[in-house]
Design goal:
The complex is a heterotrimer. In chain A, the strands form 3 sheets. Chain A has a 7-stranded mixed sheet with strand order 7-6-8-9-10-14-15, with helices on one face. A 5-stranded parallel sheet of chain A has the order 2-1-3-4-5, with helices on both faces. By secondary structure, chain A is of the alpha/beta class. Classes of the chains: A alpha/beta, B mainly alpha, C mainly alpha. Chains in contact: A-B, A-C, B-C. At the A-B interface, helix 3, helix 4 and helix 6 of A face helix 1 of B.
Chain lengths: ~375, ~280, ~290
């Protein structure tokens, strides 16, 4: 009994070795998983992110791949839902056996799905997650999306200096994790800079009318309005404010850094201060090349999401160039994780490096982005960079 | 056994979600079977989830206790709002319960200090596995199947057919309706507590209108003539996005079309439709 | 500030009332909670946008196009979904779930064709004149939305009260069987109702798209939530209810934001909703729920 079982066992082992491991060593392709929201409410970001990834991957392939090996992108739609994100992550990790995972689009989804990657010891690299509690999940979690905590103070300081405001009104979306954590960061930055707040008003995603809040704000006489919103609400807010006769400057978070604000708030889009690591107007050689290539491939001007995805692909590629893939999935994944933190890259979003974050247990965990903020103000449908 | 391991690694969350969705479908089955058009289950799910999570995050509560607290919290709220709300009937009840769900969501959103508001609660310990989910589903299913053929089950069917006649027979219709409502709430609360403990993160927005409508769809698609309808409805709604994965961008479209087709061809639910089909094949 | 908030309340209320008019009509006559109304609303906006962008129509013809497209959509909705379900004597909730499916399909088609980003009407589609009235700013669109809501309600009330079609509709709403016995062409009238309701939804879609400067595939969802609230408050199936309910909700929200706090806005709105349901379930103008024969 024991004898035949052992024989079957070793035959199975041989089977697995021959058909499981060998093909991996023979493959000349590096599999990368991409889980983004390609349909649903978050799809405008997910689709832009995907375009950034594909543009970068295409360029890498055109220049010979990674040490001669080709990149294979396995793209899945996580629909902006947390359960989908978990399911998609598991499929990419266990079924497609990717060596690295990009995504997901929303911070909410990341908080549910990144632990899966951490437990499976696969690098998950977010390009659009900015909320708290993500990189603290563990040391396999990376992101190159600079958090509001790092950018907002710089934006506020620059705007305050140039326009001289001493008291502001605050308006933010209180039902969305992105705008909410943006507000928390604004609040802290305002306190640190000792700028007074005349009133704090809220709105919800999907709202169409902001005049009640704006009328109330107007009545408290602030010098500027601090806005934590995404463009979908932010643009109508600016339009309605101007229609109500409010001519004050706006200071916006990351979400307002999008060329769409010019389309949606045409003629009313001036005087918006935004800080971001990336600007479409940035005149570095890398950025100009990126913007031109993006326009050529997709016919539109890129936004921040596309830019960060583009750079993320290159950052990951940089780490992979330093490796020699052994064909053993676990070892390769671990090696990639070990090589990534040291990568420094100068891409469309400027000079970049990682900084390790602290986990929930106080020990070192995942990796956040370190980049300098560019402060811009809108003027006649352009972002004008402030030095 | 390697394929099982591989299957499980990839699909474990899907299986667990199917389990909790079946529980949610059962929670709406019990109210629909009683003739109550209640769409409040997403709200109860939220109450169950948040109560359980606040316990496991901040104290060292064993899982079974946390789950019970979740279910009981939902049940208590159901008791509270059930008495005035169940006076309504039909579409009015549907609207009221829909509004209730939204109120719960807004309260959770605004109680930031406790619930984290829009930022949600994350880092939830992964305590739930197949055992807990399967046990819950099995127990609920067994109880309902037994009840369906008992006197209580017949009373409930009678109520859904004609309330006035049942009342005239001397039965306390209001009590029965309240009990169904409360049990439905407890199940939804349990499902919420379970779901929270295998998805690491909860936030108020996942318990809103979309979730309420999804639960309703599960109930209606499965059908209310039998608890098995709930099993069918819950499983289908969970599995469909996964089965359609290959469709790429067309996934939501096909999802919608399938929903429409099912309702058009089997308006009383799939379970009923299957029975009709089987009867035709096996006269 | 009060003057401005009153204007804000009127225009927000007008927006809600316009949407609710179509929604309540389908409920009152066809007895269906039409969860696809939000999607039809969205289709109207996109149809007008397309007319303006591709065919360079001006505003009024574009609105006409929107009415046409959504009218057809409403007709198809009835023929393909509501009528078969009526014929099969489907349970109450079945058509509602079917409309959920329709709504998913429509949003997905639009997303596939137009993309999911917010789009907007070109700036010159609307005159941008603003009037200053007692320290409040009122613009052309505000006036039009409020005016149109009142006009449509007045028109519909007249039709319902004084025309033979209106009488047939009222008979239908009361009891389809009796109406059929009295010689009303029930099927055709159901279809016509769906068409009218969809046109109302589509036109309000265009106006609100202009008001908010954005058109996106899921724009109908938040409106649907508000529409349900309006219909509960005002009374389901009643045209006056949709109007009064709409303005009531609009004012409640605006005044809450102005004097209590904007984060309490939804809580107050839903609290009101709940109270109406518990104290007067039929809503301000609705009829007490009666068992249908």
């Amino acid at each position: 009994m024991k004898f035949s079982r052992r024989l079957i066992g070793s035959r199975a082992l041989l089977f697995i070795l021959v058909f499981g491991v060998l093909p991996n060593t023979a493959a000349a392709q590096i599999k990368i998983g991409i889980a983004e929201a390609l349909t649903g409410n978050a799809s405008q970001y997910g689709v832009a992110i995907r375009k950034g990834f594909e543009l970068a991957a295409g360029e890498i392939a055109a220049s010979g791949g990674i040490n001669g090996q080709k990149l294979e992108l396995v793209i899945e739609d996580e629909q902006g839902k947390k359960e989908e994100a978990i399911n998609v992550f598991k499929k990419l990790i266990f079924q497609d056996k990717v060596v690295l995972l990009f995504g997901p689009t929303l911070s909410n989804s990341a908080q549910a799905s990144d632990p899966v990657a951490q437990a499976a010891k696969v690098v998950v690299f977010g390009t659009s997650n900015t909320a708290d509690g993500i990189t603290s999940i563990g040391n396999y979690v990376f992101r190159n999306s600079v958090t509001e905590a790092d950018i907002l103070p710089a934006t506020l300081k620059a705007a305050a200096q140039k326009t001289g405001f001493s008291k502001v009104a605050v308006l933010y979306g209180n039902d969305d994790i992105f705008t909410r954590s943006g507000y928390d960061n604004f609040k802290k930055a305002l306190q640190d800079l000792k700028i007074g707040v005349t009133t704090t008003e809220t709105f919800a995603k999907g709202d169409v009318d902001f005049k009640p809040q704006l009328t109330k704000i107007k009545g408290t006489n602030p010098d500027a309005i601090v806005l934590s919103a995404l463009v979908a609400e932010g643009a109508p807010i600016m339009v309605q404010a101007r229609q109500l006769g409010i001519t004050l400057p706006f200071v916006g978070g990351n979400g307002m850094n999008s060329p769409r604000v010019f389309e949606l708030a045409r003629d009313y889009s001036d005087n918006l201060w935004v800080g971001s690591p990336w600007s479409v107007e940035s005149s570095t050689a890398e950025n100009k090349r990126f913007v031109a290539a993006y326009k050529k491939a997709y016919g539109t001007v890129p936004d921040q999401f596309a830019a960060q995805a583009y750079d993320a692909m290159y950052i990951a590629a940089e780490a992979m160039r330093k490796l020699k893939f052994a064909g053993n999935l676990d070892a390769d994944r671990r090696a990639l994780r070990d090589a990534l933190p040291a990568v420094q890259w100068n891409g469309a979003t400027g000079p970049f490096k990682f900084r390790q974050a602290i986990g929930r247990d106080g020990k070192p965990a995942g990796y956040d982005a370190v980049q300098t903020a560019i402060v811009m103000v809108t003027k006649r449908n352009h972002y004008v960079i402030q030095k | 056994m390697e394929w099982l391991d591989s299957f499980w690694s990839t699909y474990s969350t899907l299986v667990l979600s199917t389990g909790t969705n079946v529980l949610l479908a059962l929670s709406i089955y019990v109210t629909l079977a009683c003739g109550l058009l209640s769409v409040a289950n997403a709200g109860f799910m939220a109450i169950g989830a948040y109560s359980a999570v606040l316990l496991t995050l901040h104290t060292v509560t064993p899982l079974p206790l946390a789950l019970m607290v979740g279910a009981i919290a939902a049940a208590m709220v159901a008791l509270l709002i059930g008495v005035p709300t169940l006076r309504l009937s039909g579409v009015y009840l549907a609207m009221a319960t829909l509004a209730f769900g939204e109120v719960v969501r807004i309260l959770i959103l605004n109680a930031e200090d406790v619930t984290g508001g829009a930022l949600g609660l994350n880092g939830i310990p992964q305590l739930v596995g197949v055992f807990e989910v399967i046990t819950s589903v099995a127990v609920a299913l067994y109880v309902f199947l037994r009840l369906a053929h008992s006197r209580i089950g017949r009373t409930i069917t009678a109520i859904s057919q004609d309330e006035i006649a049942t009342e005239l027979m001397g039965l306390n219709v209001r009590a029965y309706k309240l009990v169904c409502f409360v049990i439905g709430a407890a199940l939804a609360g349990l499902a919420g507590a379970l779901n929270a403990h295998f998805t690491f993160f909860i936030s108020p927005n996942e318990y809103g209108f979309e979730r309420a409508v999804e639960i309703l769809a599960m109930g209606v698609i499965g059908g209310v003539s039998s608890p098995w309808g709930a099993v069918l409805g819950g499983t289908l709604i969970t599995a469909l996005p996964e089965l359609l994965r290959g469709m790429g961008r067309y996934r939501p479209l096909i999802n919608g079309v399938i929903l429409i087709m099912i309702i058009l061809y089997s308006p009383k639910g799939l379970w009923d439709g299957l029975q009709t089909l089987l009867r035709r094949v096996r006269p | 500030m009060l003057a401005q908030q009153i204007i804000n309340g009127l225009s927000l209320g007008g927006v809600y009332a316009l949407f609710a008019l179509g929604f309540t009509l389908v409920f009152g006559v066809l007895n269906v909670i039409n969860l696809a109304h939000g999607a039809i609303f969205m289709i109207g906006a996109y149809a007008a946008l397309y007319a303006v962008l591709v065919f360079h129509f001006s505003l009024l013809p574009a609105i006409f196009v929107a009415a046409l497209v959504t009218g057809v959509a409403g007709w198809i909705l009835d023929k393909l979904i509501f009528a078969p379900l009526r014929a099969r004597r489907a349970p109450h909730l079945a058509p509602m779930i079917a409309t959920i499916g329709v709504s998913i399909c429509l949003a997905s088609i639009i997303e596939g064709y137009f993309g999911s980003e917010n789009l907007r009407f070109p700036l010159d589609t609307l005159p941008s004149s603003t009037l200053s009235l007692a320290s409040a700013q009122v613009n052309w669109l505000d006036v039009n939305i409020i005016g149109l809501a009142l006009l449509l309600m007045g028109g519909m009330l007249w039709v319902i009260r004084h025309s033979s079609t209106g009488r047939a509709l009222r008979a239908l709403a009361e009891s389809p069987k009796a109406a059929a016995l009295l010689g009303v062409n029930v099927g055709e009238l159901f279809g016509a109702t769906s068409v009218i309701a969809s046109i109302l939804g589509g036109v309000s879609g265009v106006l609100i798209a202009l008001y908010t400067n954005s058109v996106f595939p899921h724009m109908g969802q938040p409106m649907l939530h508000k529409g349900i609230a309006v219909v509960i408050i005002g009374g389901m199936g009643d045209v006056r209810g949709a109007l009064i309910g709409g303005f009531f909700l609009g004012f409640a929200e605006v005044l809450t934001i102005a004097y209590i706090g904007s984060n309490m806005r939804d809580a107050v709105a839903f609290g009101l909703l709940f109270s109406v349901l518990l104290l007067r379930p039929a809503g301000l103008f609705g009829q007490a729920p009666q068992r249908r024969a």
